[in-house]
Amino acid sequence: MRTLVLSLAAAAALSAQQTPPPAAAPQTSAPPAQAAAQAAAQANNLDEVLKAVDDLMWHTLLGDIADVDKIRYASLPPAHIANPHAPGAANPLVIAAYTFIPKKLDRSRKQPLIVFCHQGIHANEDTRDAHVFRELLEQGYSIIAPDYRGSTGYGRGFYQQIDYGGREVDDVYIGAQWMLENYSFLDPKRVGIIGWSHGGLITLMNIFEHPQMYAVAYAGVPVSDLVARMGYEPEQYRALYSAPYSIGKTVREDIEEYRKRSPVTHASELETPLLIHTNTNDEDVNVLEVEHLIEALKAAGKKFEYKIYQNAPGGHYFNRLDTKLAKDSRKEIYAFLARYLKPGE
Predict the structure, then answer these.
(1) CATH topology of domain 37-81+101-225+262-341
(2) Rounded to whole angstroms, how far apart are CA atoms 159 and 154?
(3) pTM (two decimals)
(4) What is the pLDDT of residues 221-245, one digit of tens each?
(5) To bridge 25 with a disulfide, which of 21, 313, 317, 329 should be the other Cys (CB 3.0-4.6 Å)?
């Protein structure tokens, strides 16, 4: 259903953007820079349409078991301010987040919270993960899922606010604080955080930077070592990091900056119970990255759990599919979380 609705929305958005030129107009091509800007504008317009559709889809898919809402809160100011003297230039950035509260939850007792970090360097929390949310909600977890700075669906300006491994981490942490401040039945001692891929990186950076907030964490196929990652990714991907509005330099130009934003560098800071999953045939986050993290945690003498799946079907997305292996893997995740968060108690 989601695929059909999104396809129709995409077609409508593209049709609306494609205004035919006057019949007598000469055929001229725009300069490369102008053409690139037009393409970026169209892509962002489409992202906003798809985000609006997905906002509705969350209610359709989970409204039967959860109170679904979309909230906004103030986070840290932009990491890069072109003109710090402009009015409002240093104002806090406004972050949107989805919240889910199980409808049958006993609000007279303290209850656990899950902070869900979406995947993708430029992506957003969309309903492809709705089945995972449903499984968590059915166990009695409340959830917040922030669309941290740099997420798509909020226009080009927000897209360019990305601060990879930096203030996007704070956006998620502040979202967890917002939930605890606004729902008195949530237990500040039973907050867990989970994420896959880039969301795994944000999960790891959160527990390294804010260990007092989280009782447990799960990082699935997490981006772990940016220096190694830049060595095997293509130029188009590396350009997302070296863009002027992002890190602003290539890894060769500033290795230390990339190391600072990599979980592997902070392995000695682990204090939170942690489960890591990776897959040897992952086509996105190569297993070598996660192995570097595992080795660093062991070298630091840290206690944690991990599993390296051998060529599990699905590659990067292996344990978010509907296969038996994926479901069994998620059961392992939920059992690990429940050890510390104790849903239903």
Answers:
(1) Rossmann fold (3.40.50)
(2) 7
(3) 0.89
(4) 999 999 999 999 999 999 999 999 9
(5) 21
